[in-house]
Model the fold of this input.
Amino acid sequence: MRILVVEDEKKIAKFIERGLKAHRYTVDIAYHGENGLRMAEANPYDLIILDIMLPGKDGITVCKELREKKIDSPIMMLTAKSSVSDKVLALQIGADDYLVKPFSFEEFTARIAALLRRTRSDKTSLLKAGDILLDQMTHKVTKADQEIFLTPKEYSLLEYFMLNADQVVTRTMISEHVWNEDFDSFSNIIDVFINNLRAKLEPDRKKELIKTIRGVGYVLKGKFK
Ligand code: CA
Done:
């Protein structure tokens, strides 16, 4: 899942980015309010982390403008102040959660996972497709109880397929949710990763777990057997 971090303090932004990447999230960073707003309008982020004190445009204004533009990605505000009025204001203008700096990374990632689950109906961190299980908390993937070892990117791709099981997933959707701004749309990198996933999940290619829909995209079968 792809997260936008809007935070002007480079040290904090890098710290957040490193931590999120370790948790298999795809991350883009904006150091400026206006920039963050532009990026959030251009890409369908699964979550936006928004600092309040920002150059260009403050986080409250950015959040307000995003909601006015009907961009409904979950938003978590970061605030250095612990004043009640700041928190109330953040929630009033459409943020979904807030965190007071400094915060522990444990609490931060737990809140992010909760926010990302909130939009889903099942609310569980254990995804299932056939005999494949993916645990979003531990990042462990098993198939018929055998652990499958995936690279972080392969994991993110499988997670995206499993969150959208039995639905057609286009290459654009994959590039928008699994890759960040550095994605090169002229490369065949998505095909390479899908082939790697297929090789690891279905080495004998008996069931064709990830089906190619020619000219459209792919479908991961959620229910089989
Ligand atoms: Ca700041």
Observations:
- The helical segments are 10-22, 33-42, 59-68, 84-92, 105-118, 152-163, 171-178, 189-201.
- The radius of gyration is 18 Å.
